[in-house]
Structure formats: C-alpha cells, structure tokens
C-alpha cells in the first residue's frame, strides 16, 4: 500500500448500508505478511444469483479459471478474496490451491464447492498456501456481519491509496432495491502489484442469466472504458450477486434482462459500475490528473472506442498531461496510429471547451492561455471529432508521472 | 537536443566513405531556431532509383503524402529534410509548403518536382514557412560534397543524443558495392519531439521496383521490430536510393529482387537496416537499458511478433527493467494480454540464460542471484517460449525511466 493518498481520491465517502442477504468478515491469514488483513469472506445465507466478467488475458489466474467453471451453476453462497498472492502462473499447484480453498469455504459456510467464488491478488508465480484459509474461514463465517463494506474494501487493497465503495438504490415493482459495490485496483493492471477486482451485490431478486446480461452490458462503458497503463491483469474479476431478499417486500422475481421493470435498476447499476471504475482510474499508480476522452464522428461506436483508447494509452499523451502541456499534436498522433479511419482535414480537437484544432489545422482562434488553464485542472476533458460518422465513445485514464515509474520500477530497490 | 548522451550510444563510429553518385550539404534556414543547422539536401547528380516505406498513421504528414505520390515515378534527384517543423496537421498550408519546397529544390538541382523527396521533423500543427528553403537550396547544391555522412546525420537530429550512421559493403558481379545510411529518432515516436527518419543510399545499379521489394522485406525485422513507447509518428520515413554508379565498374543492372546475384547485397542491406534501427532504440528517450525480446514456439511468426511487441510495449515490463527487476510475472501478463494463443502451462521464460519459469510455474532451479546479475546488464535478452508451434520473432525496446517522463512531460515547464 502506498503511503500518500492520491490527490484524486474522493473528498467524502458514502454511508454504506447493510444489504439484506450478505454478510462479510475479514481476517489475517498470513498469506504474505504477518498480522495484515488479507482475506475477505462474503457469505450469502441463502443461495444468491451470480454473474461475472473476467480478464481477457490468455494466461488467466487459477481463481479466474475456477470462477468461470462455477458460473454456469448460477448459485453463489460464498466469495473468498485474498491479497498477498495472485495464485497466477502457478500451474497444477494453482488448481490444487483453488480446490482446497473452495473446500475450506464450503465446509465453513455449509454449501457446495461449486457455490464458492474466488479471487486472488498479489504476487504472481508463487504457490499459494491455501491451508492457511482452513484455519480462519470457520471463524469468519461465524463473525460475518452486514454493515462491513468499508472494511471489506480495505481488506482487498494492494497498491490502492484509498478504499473504493459505492451504493445506489432503485425501484422494482415499487420496492426499494439497494446495490452496493467495492472495488480495488490502481493500474489496469499488472501482476505482482495490482489487479482490478470488484464485487457488487444487490438485494433484488433477479435470476442469474438476466444478471449476467445486465453485467455484460454494464461493463462496456464502465470498467472496460478505463485504462491506467494498457496493461491487463491475469486476475481482473468483476462479479455481481443478487441475494433476492427484496422478494420479502413484494418484488416479484425478474426472469429476463429485457424486463421493462428493470429500467430504473439498470440505470442505478450502470451508474454504480461507472462510479467504481472511475475510482480505480483516480487511484491510478502515480496519477495526479484524470482525463476524460470523448471521441465523436467515428464510423461506429466501436471505432470511436478504439481511437479513444489509442489516445488514452499513449505514453506521450499521458506524459504531456502530466506536464500540463496541451499537446494536441500527440492527440493527432494517437488518432493516426489507432488504425481506424481518420481524415486529417476533418479532425477537430478540444481541451475542455477550447477548440485547439479544426479542419486539419491549428484553430486560428485558439488561446494558449485558456488552454493552459484547462491543463492545470485536476480533471481534464479531451474531445476529438473525426467528422466521418455518428460513432461515439468516452474513456477515462490518468496521467503518466515519474511516480508511476517509481512505483513500478523502484520498489525492489 | 538532449544535453547528455545516452549510455547506450555506440562506443565508436565507423568511417563513413563517400558513395559515388550522391552529394550532401546542410544549412541553417531558420525554420524554428536562428543559426541552427536545420536543413539537409541530398543530391543525386544522375537519376537514382528510389524506394520508400512510411508511417502507417492515418494522419500522415504532408511530406509523407508528397513522397508517396512521387514514388511511382521511380526516380530521385534530390532529398530535402528539415528539422524544427514536421509540416504535419497543417492542412492545405501543408500541401502548399511541400509544393513550394519541391519547386525550390527542383530549381536548385535542375530536375523535375516529381524527382524530389521530402521529410520534415519537429513541431506539429505549425505552418512550415517553405520560402525559407528557396534562399538556401541553390547554395547547398553548389557546395554539396560526398564525404558528409556524419554531418548529415547530425543535421536531422531532434531529441537524439547521438548521430546515427552505418555503412556496409557487398559484392554484386564481383564488384564491391557500398551501402551507407543515416537515421534519426529517439522514440517510436511522437510529433513535437521526435520522428523516425532514415535515408540509405547504395551505389549499386538496381531498378526501383526491385529496390522497393528489398526495402519492404528488410524493414520487417529491423525498423518494424523496434519500439520505444508504442507511439507512431505521423512522419516516419525510411528511404533507399540506388545511384547505379557501380555500373561503371561492370555491375550489370539488377532488374528483379529475386535475382540470385543480390544475396550478398540483401545480407548487407538487412544488416545495415538492423544496425540503424537498433541505434534508434538505444537512443530511446530516457533509455538506460536495451531489451531484446525473442518469442518462440508461437503458432506463426506473425503471432510471435504480436506477443513480442505486447511485451516490448508494456509500461510495467519496461519500468521493471528500469528497476533491474526480473519481474517475469509482468512478462506473463503481457503474453496474456496480447490476444494471441498462449497456454499458461506450456510457457517458459528466460532472462539471459536463466530460465525463470517453465511449465506454467516458477522454475524450481531459478536463481535470484543469477537473474539479478542479468538485470544489471546494459543489454538484457528476454526469451519466451510459448510451446505451441514454430513461429518466432525478435523485437527490441528500451526501459521506461523517470527521464522519459521528464523529457516528454517537463519540457514545457
């Protein structure tokens, strides 16, 4: 964990209400360090519906493989998350470790092993000693409580400088539904230092296939639209659970993602996912500034996103932002290298509300002073119009600072 | 230009022989700064054959567009290269500037405008005042000499910390052929700070279409296998000229790239291209270490190159190298995010000759001390075997240091 909190950290945290049907506890299992909280247990006392999206890495961690295999069963009773060891690139030993952890959790909670979900973050390539979980999970299950969200968020931090939590409410059938979430991550993000994990729980009663559709749709404009350094972890995991406790208040079960009663819920869920994703970017390793990049006028939304991510991942764009330099030449470069259609002579670029380039040239009315004022802001909006079609996309990133290099290059010395 | 020379700079420079058929001169045209050499003229007194490969950017500079348009004519008489202004993203004004520069050069040299080639590097988005060339090109033509390669290499430097030159000889028909080249570049590389330019000249007598085939084949394992920061300039230009002067010694004209008499020439050309490309990486902005990444066992050579470039462009791999950290977990991450087929349990990774991971796990015989010794080297070989097929590729990159961030983020402050 870093000693100084990111300047982009939230100024205040929401009150995180308990959510019916889920309890949590943390413990120090000694995975890597002694006397450091390194395990989180989430327990669903009744079977919860479950959805998950995972890293696209071709070398996923053992817990990612394990979760993917359990997901078709559609039932969750327990989630075990540990920091200190990613259980990634651990071969056969990794599969043994996930099996043993699941067995310990199933015994502690009193459920089947295919109702257990796992996530690990920390060192890669080191065998995870899963016997350490057996000693703590029983106790954790006994002690787990509902009003524990901030503590849960803290337990899964690695290089994060602040815990990430969020909560929303929505109406289904006139019943007030709660959605709570936690996230960790401080890069996009790499083994050995970080990984993006997020766990979101609602008390709505929604079946697993519908939940999966909602999550798959929600991840695109949120977690899949943020980047810190273009590096994708072997362990990235986003899960959504529905305890169904709202059924007691008269919410009748939702069977399909296109049910019109879900409109308000979808809005709240997507807003929460975006909130959590942006908290991850704002804690990007070494970040001092947040950049919102909107590309319009592309041939398609997909093309717009490719261009936006090309800009967001460009080291030269990110170092320019760190230097408060309105270097729109580097934006042009990043548009050009994206591989998507672009016509130099139709391109227009804005920093904040200042249009710096238009029709393939510097804007004749461009004010260096106005642009410099934008670049001094903590939050910098960049807009690029390609002038070709109707496609749009927005992505978020942070600047690339010497501190990023220090965090990722110096920590061994 | 940076004040301190890269620690990876060549320890010595080759003697660069004059090459029959080409003369060069430099001048201070005042493009951006007063009294700084900023223009290079290369003159071919007799029409030279010509080949070129250019940036894949969708927003190329006006000189790149100009060169591409002239290339089908297949004849070069003059090359004008300027630093201080990239003439990129300059719209209609950019095309006027290339037209005027070509007209000035054609008048000075006494050739047609479609026998002129242009390259510009420097600030993007600023109109280039091409009238400044008119005053100097006539004089330059009169003063141009053959033994001028190091000076030519210096004239096109921007953030480069050393000039880049190379020379080779080869036999065709028993005649000794010379190939000389210069390059500039200190990133892969961005507008406003840098751009990769290289000009290679031989006295061999080879027709333009054959020359184009040789260059297209040669660029893959050389300039297209190096990366500093994954950012591609709007202006990247590599050109190959053949003066044909060796015909006087009895070399009969080569009409096709598959002519068996070219074997020795191809070897020498490819070796020179690789030499120049590696000189660019070794001058990467802020570079302290050079990394050679070889991927084997991929499904195809193309897949191997995608994986190798994913490793080479990963900020987390590059910062780890800067920190002398044998962080093979980040190599796994970069393999996984490449999108190419990979099987965690077949992966093996070496730093130098030390195998750190095998069969999807840390190598049990892995020595931390041996690996640390490798990481302290100036040149670090990384080898990854995917264990899937026969595809191989090698790429080169440098580390990512705080100095890179400083060069690209602080220079305005």
From TrEMBL, chains A, B:
EC identifiers of the protein: 2.3.1.35, 2.3.1.1
Give the reactions, separated by semicolons, that this protein catalyses: L-glutamate + acetyl-CoA = N-acetyl-L-glutamate + CoA + H(+); N(2)-acetyl-L-ornithine + L-glutamate = N-acetyl-L-glutamate + L-ornithine
Q: Where is this site: Cleavage?
A: 194-195
Subcellular localization is given as: Cytoplasm
Q: Which pathway is this protein assigned to? A: Amino-acid biosynthesis; L-arginine biosynthesis; N(2)-acetyl-L-ornithine from L-glutamate: step 1/4; Amino-acid biosynthesis; L-arginine biosynthesis; L-ornithine and N-acetyl-L-glutamate from L-glutamate and N(2)-acetyl-L-ornithine (cyclic): step 1/1
| UniProt KW keywords | Acyltransferase, Amino-acid biosynthesis, Arginine biosynthesis, Autocatalytic cleavage, Cytoplasm, Multifunctional enzyme, Transferase
The main location is: cytoplasm
**What are the binding positions for substrate in this chain?**
158, 184, 195, 285, 408, 413
Which Gene3D superfamilies does its entry note?
ArgJ beta chain, C-terminal domain (3.10.20.340), L-amino peptidase D-ALA esterase/amidase (3.60.70.12)
| Single annotated GO MF | L-glutamate N-acetyltransferase activity
Annotated site (Involved in the stabilization of negative charge on the oxyanion by the formation of the oxyanion hole): 121-122
Q: Which InterPro entries match?
A: Arg_biosynth_ArgJ (IPR002813), ArgJ-like_dom_sf (IPR016117), ArgJ_beta_C (IPR042195)
An example GO BP is: ornithine biosynthetic process
One Pfam family in the UniProt entry? ArgJ
One GO location term (cellular component): cytoplasm
Active-site residue numbers = 195 (nucleophile)
What is the role of the protein in this entry?
Catalyzes two activities which are involved in the cyclic version of arginine biosynthesis: the synthesis of N-acetylglutamate from glutamate and acetyl-CoA as the acetyl donor, and of ornithine by transacetylation between N(2)-acetylornithine and glutamate.
In the record, the note on similarity to other proteins reads: Belongs to the ArgJ family.
What is said about its interaction partners and assembly? Heterotetramer of two alpha and two beta chains.
Specify the protein name. Answer: Arginine biosynthesis bifunctional protein ArgJ
Organism the protein comes from: Rhizobium deserti
What gene name is listed for this protein? Answer: argJ
């Amino acid at each position: 964990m870093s000693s100084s909190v990111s300047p982009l950290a939230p100024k205040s945290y929401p009150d995180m209400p308990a959510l019916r049907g889920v309890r949590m506890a943390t413990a120090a299992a000694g995975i890597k360090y002694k006397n450091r909280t390194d395990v989180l247990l989430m327990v669903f006392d009744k079977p919860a519906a479950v959805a998950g999206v995972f890293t696209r890495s071709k070398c996923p961690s053992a817990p990612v493989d394990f979760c993917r295999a359990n997901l078709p069963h559609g039932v969750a009773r327990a989630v075990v998350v540990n920091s200190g060891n990613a259980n990634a690139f651990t071969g056969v030993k990794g599969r043994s470790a996930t099996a043993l952890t699941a067995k310990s959790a199933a015994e502690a909670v009193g459920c089947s092993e295919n109702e257990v979900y796992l996530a690990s973050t920390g060192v890669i390539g080191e065998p995870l000693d899963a016997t350490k979980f057996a000693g703590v999970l029983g106790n954790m299950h006994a002690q787990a409580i509902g009003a524990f969200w901030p503590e849960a968020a803290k337990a899964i931090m690695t290089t994060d400088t602040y815990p990430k939590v969020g909560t929303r409410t929505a109406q289904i059938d006139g019943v007030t539904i709660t959605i709570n979430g936690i996230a960790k991550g401080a890069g996009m993000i790499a083994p050995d230092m970080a990984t993006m994990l997020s766990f979101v729980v609602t008390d709505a009663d929604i079946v697993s296939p519908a939940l999966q559709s909602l999550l798959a749709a929600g991840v695109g404009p949120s977690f899949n639209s943020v980047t810190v350094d273009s590096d994708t972890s072997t362990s990235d995991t986003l899960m959504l659970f529905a305890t169904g406790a709202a059924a007691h208040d008269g919410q009748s079960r939702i069977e399909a993602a296109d049910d019109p009663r879900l409109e308000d819920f979808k809005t709240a869920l997507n807003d929460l996912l975006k909130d959590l994703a942006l908290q991850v970017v704002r804690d990007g390793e070494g970040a001092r500034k947040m950049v919102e990049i909107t590309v319009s006028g592309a041939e398609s939304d997909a093309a717009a996103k490719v261009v936006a991510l090309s800009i967001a991942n460009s080291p030269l764009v990110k170092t320019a932002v760190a230097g408060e330099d309105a270097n729109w030449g580097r934006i042009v470069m990043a548009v050009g290298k994206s591989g998507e259609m672009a016509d130099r002579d139709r391109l227009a670029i804005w920093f904040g509300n200042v249009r710096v380039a238009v029709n393939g040239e510097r804007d004749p009315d461009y004010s260096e002073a106005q642009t410099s004022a934008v670049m001094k802001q903590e939050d910098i909006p960049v807009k690029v119009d390609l002038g070709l079609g109707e496609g749009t996309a927005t992505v978020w990133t942070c600047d690339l600072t010497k501190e990023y290099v220090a965090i990722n290059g110096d920590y061994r010395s």
